[in-house]
Amino acid sequence: MRLRIIAVLSLLVFSASVHADSGAAAPVISSIDSVGITVEDMNRAVEFYTKVLGFEKLDAHEVTGDQYEHLYGVFGLRLSVTTLRLGEERIELMQFITPRGRPEPADSKSNDRWFQHVAIIVSDMDRAYAWLREHKVEHASAGPQLLPAWNPNAGGISAFYFRDPDGNHLEVLHFPEGKGDAKWHRKSDRLFLGIDHTAIVVGDTAESLGFYRDALGLRVAGASENYGPEQERLNNVFGARLRITALRAARGPGVELLEYLAPRTGRPIPVDSKANDDWYWQVNTSANVAAADVASRHGHYSYVSPGPQGVDGTVQLIIRDPDGHAMLLRDRSAVEGTSP
Question: 168 in helix, strand or coil?
Fold first, then answer.
């Protein structure tokens, strides 16, 4: 099986190179499938996401062995993974049973480069905030913030940052009429509806667009510049001024780039970060892995995996954006028709 995967990969890499040279514009990423979040205690995390936020548990399993060690770049790995669904979107909770990574710095702030969250859409912000207060979540914002009307792209949106039991940032978000995807405005008796996007802090929007848009094929779906007291209290960063760029694949939640124009005091992701460190998140995608490999090499982007890996009947690769955020690319078509 492994030899057959390598042979198929070689053919696909050649094909990807030819398409790149001929100017073919097919997106490398066809869909964003889920967001991977590292947790320290899986049972505690699952209880929180299902009982407090209304996620549904779909699957739980453990992985170990050479193929996963090379995929994640962690020797001796044993990884527990639980897939949860909210509406049409999914997250994957990941607990590294061994080896344990480093904890997130206790003084982490929302403008540090390792910041990432998922934005959960709610049908009623007041009810959602009261429910979260009832369950004693840790605040990361002073409270829900209504973004001002003078901002044409963000005005009328209300948002609140909080943390899960492992300290991971989450956001609840409510769109007014005329903003957000139409599905967020369908009548529903649910309070927590689904995931609109995952947001990451970047150092330079143009450099990040070279990775997400130009190399991987995500499209720019919107942009905004947010500042003022509401934004400061939402992010809990005094003087915050953000350039926000929304990206989308053909399917799935978006990726939102947050560049702090001020203050530029956020710390970079440590260069020796590993997948088992507590601040590690990943965006899981369906993609043309061979084309992603070619684009990553051409752009001199960093790899978590040493190269494309044959994993459970698929070809997978984890790469990093210019700031160190991880993207897992999974290609099922690359080994279609092969047998163990």
Answer: coil
Read out DSSP for 14-49?
HHHHHHHHHT----SEEEEEEEEEE-S-HHHHHHHH
Tell how strand 309-311 and strand 56-64 pair up: unpaired
Which H or E run contains 66?
helix 66-72
Supply the pTM of this predicted model. 0.91
- Residue of 270, 268, 242 lying closest to 257 (CA atoms): 242
The dihedral through the CA atoms of 302, 34, 221, 280 has a sign that is negative
In CATH, what number does 116-262 get? 3.10.180.10
Helix (H) or strand (E) run with residue 205 in it: helix 205-209
| Architecture of the domain delimited by 2-103+277-335 | Roll (3.10)
Mapped onto helix, strand or coil, the DSSP state of residue 335 is: helix
For helices 2-22 and 289-299, angle between their N-to-C axes, nearest 10 degrees: 60
Whether residue 212 contacts residue 325, with contact meaning beta carbons closer than 8 Å, is answered with no
- State the DSSP code for 157: -
Look up residue 108 and give its two tokens. Answer: 């982490």
User: How many other C-beta atoms are found inside a 10 Å radius of the C-beta of residue 203?
Assistant: 16
Q: What H or E segment, with its residue span, contains residue 122?
A: strand 116-122
How confident is the model over 278-330, as pLDDT tens digits? 999 999 999 999 999 999 999 999 999 999 999 999 999 999 999 999 999 99
Domain ranges of the chain: 2-103+277-335, 116-262
